[in-house]
């Protein structure tokens, strides 16, 4: 193990130890020439191991994925092999789970879906790259929540014509049965590792054997049964019983998330709130649709009333003129009628006593009506004249 301040390859200064395990030690180092930081993994030399690692690292240098640190340098020093890659600041998944104590299933799904994107990318290459070392300490979550997969030290290229791996490598509790020499590591090997990582996130337990997650008593009673079913399918001992691909696993997790979204009571209550909001918005929209309709009716009514008022005004003018003419003609007609009445009364008074009495009555009526309006006297006289005739 190197001490802080040690210089590697004449340019990397050791600042601190990031982690260590059975496969070696990882250091945080500073490039004293470029003034930047790198993660450097130290592995002890082994002839068979070195050949395998060099072959894989030369391919990993060409990888391009935002969730995979770049491998920028490989070198030997003394009796050790060193792999230089991007330094990712953050917590390992193991640290994250231990700090949080318990995380929601939705958070587990989010993390595992990000991991599946990285693994799916590796498997899509030609030939595919098998990661082979999925475990919480090799998964880093940075401060913004992005997931990274680090430490590609034992990753390998899949060889279709090989029956088994050249060297049996993996992490206890997370390694698939085929990694123990039973068969060659393949895509389902990484699916097995993903299942074990999900088990750890869901229960907080480090699996001591591959069979542990297969038993219901190792899960809490309130955990999602469908999610447990997915984990169990991932870690089946037989390769053929696991998911055919990471894509199929990812698809089922997404579908499960959609089903749960509409199966939660709390979401139903939220949905009712949304419905009320929608109804309220609909009422507002309805009001705004009705208001213009009534305004149109109002303006149309005002227009029609205006047209009608113009026509009536003309008729009123004619009627008013006629009335004025009639009123003016009444005095003249009344005057002529009075003259006739007076002449008639004078002739009849000399010859007939009865007519004289009537004349006397007329005189009395005339005297009585002197106090009434002229218009009334005129019409009274006219009436008397007609009666006289």
Task: Give an overview of the whole structure.
This protein is α+β, with helices and mostly antiparallel strands. It folds into three domains: 1-87, Phosphorylase Kinase, domain 1, CATH 3.30.200; 89-263, Transferase(Phosphotransferase), domain 1, CATH 1.10.510.10; 268-388. 52% of the residues lie in helices and 14% in strands. It contains nine helices and eleven strands. Strand 5 (71-77) and strand 6 form a beta hairpin. Helix 3 (105-124) runs antiparallel to helix 4 (187-203), helix 5 (225-234) packs antiparallel against helix 6 and helix 7 (265-351) crosses helix 9.
Protein topology:
Elements: E1 7-8, E2 12-21, E3 24-31, E4 36-44, H1 47-60, E5 71-77, E6 80-86, E7 91-92, H2 93-100, H3 105-124, E8 129-130, E9 139-141, E10 147-149, E11 156-157, H4 187-203, H5 225-234, H6 246-261, H7 265-351, H8 353-369, H9 374-388
Antiparallel strand pairs: 1-2, 2-3, 3-4, 4-6, 5-6, 7-9, 8-11, 9-10
Helix pairs in contact: 3-4, 3-6, 4-5, 5-6, 7-8, 7-9
